[in-house]
Design a protein that fits this description.
- With 393 residues, the chain is an alpha/beta fold.
- The protein is built from 13 helices and 17 strands.
- The chain has two domains: 21-268, Vaccinia Virus protein VP39 (Rossmann fold, 3-Layer(aba) Sandwich); 275-392, 3-Layer(aba) Sandwich (Rossmann fold).
- The two termini are 41 Å apart.
- α4 (134-144) runs parallel beside α5.
- Bound molecules: thymidine-5'-diphosphate.
């Protein structure tokens, strides 16, 4: 790789490393810097955090915690179910939010966070409690044979070594099989100024251009792209072995690549300009929160997301500006946010009449949250977001 740095987000902790007070002393930090690889056009971190530090038995993020994501995977699984007994593998099955839409005899899962692997094994789905590697692909092939579909959602962009990842996929895929994966879209990040998509777990933010370059050198190619609204704008990529092309699909790949060239995602200068907007966003957010605080308003944050770990640590926002964070995930409640140590409590307790402003850590669920919290909005409560510019919602 020939990587040129364009963004320094400073000292950052493990984004999902929610912790208790007595764990603060041994908290891990790293320098979060991002670069552009001239060779493949990949946006990638200048150094990667060792995966076991992030993905282990204490992993807190649960895909099933939002209705949007439950419905998303239910709908997608149903669109495939009419096909006869496809043999599927999911890489990064988390708490089973995708696999539970399938019969246990047609799907195998891989999940290195053992708390979740245990959960889905107990649900009856064979789950390998391991990281995705060529060795694991070989082991699965010996026990279960090749797969028709290999699926991964919000997982491939978590893996530092993409060449090995794709080689292992290629080896386990049937000749006419499809590799389908979803990850946050670089085009959306640039359009939304959502620099909080960058944190330890997202060593890369994918453009279609970069992905196709890396897939192709590993025997795969993109045959179709779907633009999704989840996670603030994602792409669902369909890849097949080199040479396979499904009629009528390929146009979406060309269209996305053309759009990305118009946005300049294949040029370093685009990202230098992005950095300027990130710096402006930081200044604006700190100003607006300080203003609310100075007016004596109660400001909290809604959703203890990995994304907000980047924001709070980069902007140095702590309990000086945000009183606490509410989050529905039981594993996060009672703990402190990584790095800035803002307390996290259940919305049942914390999202009450005393709140004036809530910064939307989970801005990607703004629709679901606004519907759910309509009483808050009706009584004059306001959400604050930084996407695409800092503003009240
Ligand atoms: P998400 O945006 O998927 O997070 P990440 O940046 O970590 O990928 O996570 C949303 C978080 O917000 C999750 O911890 C659950 C929480 N949440 C609420 O507390 N209330 C809600 O209504 C919703 C939709 C999410």
């Amino acid at each position: 790789m020939n990587c040129k740095e364009f963004l320094d987000l400073g000292k950052q902790p493990i984004a999902n490393g929610f912790l208790y007070k007595d764990e603060i002393k041994k908290e891990f930090f790293f320098n979060l810097k991002v670069g552009f690889d001239e060779e493949t056009k990949l946006i990638t971190q200048m150094g990667y955090v060792d995966p076991p530090l992030m993905f282990n038995k204490n992993y807190a993020y649960r895909g099933s915690m939002s209705k949007t994501m439950r419905d998303h995977f239910y709908g997608f699984s149903n669109s495939f179910k009419l096909k006869n007994k496809l043999q599927i593998l999911e890489i990064g099955s988390n708490d089973g939010v995708f696999i539970k839409n399938w019969q246990p005899d047609q799907i195998i899962a891989v999940e290195p966070c053992s708390n979740f692997a245990k959960m889905t094994n107990e649900m009856g789905y064979k789950t390998y409690d391991e990281f995705w590697t060529m060795e694991l692909a070989d082991k699965i092939q010996k026990s279960h044979g090749k797969r028709d579909i290999i699926f991964a959602a919000n997982c491939i962009c978590h893996i530092p070594d993409l060449d090995n990842t794709f080689k292992a996929v290629e080896s386990l895929l049937r000749d006419n099989g499809i590799f389908i994966f979803e990850d946050p879209s670089l085009a959306s990040m640039i359009n939304n100024n959502s620099y909080d998509q960058i944190y330890d777990e997202h060593p890369h933010i994918f453009s279609i251009i970069a992905l196709d370059n890396i897939l192709q050198r590993n025997g795969l190619q993109i045959v179709k792209v779907e633009n999704l609204s989840v996670h603030g704008g994602s792409n669902r990529i369909y890849a097949q072995k080199l040479g396979n092309k499904i009629a009528g699909w390929y146009e979406s790949v060309e269209r996305n690549k053309t759009y990305e060239r118009i946005l300049g995602l294949d040029k370093f200068e685009t990202f230098e300009r992005f950095t300027k907007r990130v710096e402006q966003s930081k200044e604006d957010l700190v100003r607006i929160l300080t203003q609310c605080k100075n007016e004596g308003k109660k400001v909290i944050s809604y959703g203890a997301t990995s994304k907000s770990t980047t924001i709070f640590n980069y902007c140095k926002i702590g309990t000086n500006l945000i009183e606490y964070i509410t989050d529905t995930t039981p594993e996060k409640q009672g703990k402190l946010s990584p790095g800035m140590h803002i307390p996290i409590i259940s919305p049942k307790i914390g999202f009450n009449n005393s709140v004036d402003y809530a910064y939307l850590g989970a801005w990607n669920f703004v629709k679901e949250i606004s519907e759910k919290e309509n009483k808050y909005l009706d009584r004059g409560g306001k959400f604050i977001t930084h996407v695409p510019i800092v503003k009240f919602v």
